[in-house]
Amino acid sequence: MTVIPNIVILTGAGISAESGIATFRGPGGLWEGHRVEDVCTPEALAADPNLVHLFYDRRRAALADVVPNAAHAALARLDRAWSGELLIVTQNVDDLHERAGAVRLLHMHGALKQALCAGCGERFDWQGDLPPGTACPACATRALRPDIVFFGEIPYHMDRIEAALAEADLFVSIGTSGAVYPAAGFVRMAREYGGATLELNLDRSEGSGWFDESRLGPAGQLVPEWVEQMLSR
Ligand code: OAD
User: How far is the CA of 218 from the centre of ligand 1 (A)?
Assistant: First the structure.
């Protein structure tokens, strides 16, 4: 009997770079013009809600101008075809994985097209702008905010992610610098649980030394090649 490996895939900004969304830490990164602490912390939201909401309004609007690339499409193909356990964990707040057709997907840093009520904790699909003071449809408090995990907040779905890593035979990290925890620690977690580890990235990430194998190049090329390799096993 052939055993089908369980796979956990972590993606970061690099997988969306070829779609035209700037990465965070590259030249012209997403924080350009803003210090990260001015737009991505709870303190920033409290101090200047107009600036923070506008920043995410612009990024939400910009999603209309981009489309999934070959790397998103390849992961969606793998998701459809893979009969073993598979989980795509993305740090990205864009919607390109789901637009490509991925289903077994978790957004650990939130999603631009969702709003979160800081009052009651409900989440809502959101299109268009989200002005500060927008009333929550569930509890009516005026506490809706972009559903983005700010620095200092706990990423979403950590229990499910850790459970998947514990069962993973293969952990694959795609297009992430390995600069932000807890995601940057997933490779070590996967290793401790006995999984093989593979990095697909334009250049070596900060945690590159923890991976069994690193393939360097653009995701639009490396990811379809890797998916083809997995599906033709
Ligand atoms: P980074 O901007 O830190 O890293 C992007 C990585 O993608 C780098 O290692 C690049 O070399 C690589 N890269 C760039 N273009 C690529 C391409 N075409 N193909 C493959 N790789 C490419 O982005 P993240 O690691 O995703 O958090 O950043 C992690 C978190 O930091 C983000 O989720 C965000 C930010 O603070 C929140 O917003 C909460």
Answer: 12
